[in-house]
UniProtKB/TrEMBL annotation:
Residues 14-177 form the Outer membrane protein beta-barrel domain. The lineage of its organism: Bacteria, Pseudomonadati, Pseudomonadota, Gammaproteobacteria, Alteromonadales. The keyword Cell cycle does not apply. Residues 1-26 form the signal peptide. Keywords: Signal. This is Porin family protein. The keyword Nucleotidyltransferase does not apply.
Amino acid sequence: MFKATKIAAAIAALTVAAGAVSVAQAQEAPQPSFNYVSGTVHQVDLDGEKLNGFGIDFGFDVNERVFAEVQYFDVGDSYGEYFGSTYVEADLDVQQLYANLGYKVLEQDSTAVYISAGFAYAKAKYSISGFGSESADDNGFNVQMGIRHRFNQQFEVDANLRHYDMGDDVNDQELALTGRYYISDEFSLMLGYTAAGDDVSYTRVGATWHF
């Protein structure tokens, strides 16, 4: 009886220890980041026209399942040409903003499957020296679904599909892929590519602070 009790106690102790190890391993598994601030350099290919500029991304967890994200960029280009003895310069500037609230549909191991929706805004301004300028802006909504996976402590990938609708002439889909390399738990370098419709794409590189 005494021997059986000792064996049972040993099995119980091993079970508790194994459970503690499993919990510790699960806690140590790297998770994809939803709390961050990124600064980026953008290059947008707008139907063959290369526009360069900067971008800012910001995200944070509202609770365990709900998160918020904001993405903004401002890009432009200038070029000039002589018409006789007169030099004419043209400038094009494009801005875009998404502000979304999202929900993590599935969060398991090092993977998060999510959906989000929110506000979409775009503005384009074109000016020619001596002739003035014109601008147009549109706003509407966007919906997004994606998957974010942390392979290990160093590498994370996010792939998502977004539909945006800002009026009859400004609605399409975007397919985006972003990779992160973590220098430390708090800082990472990022590289991303987005294809939007048939004639728009952009690449971005940047640095991110995770909190």
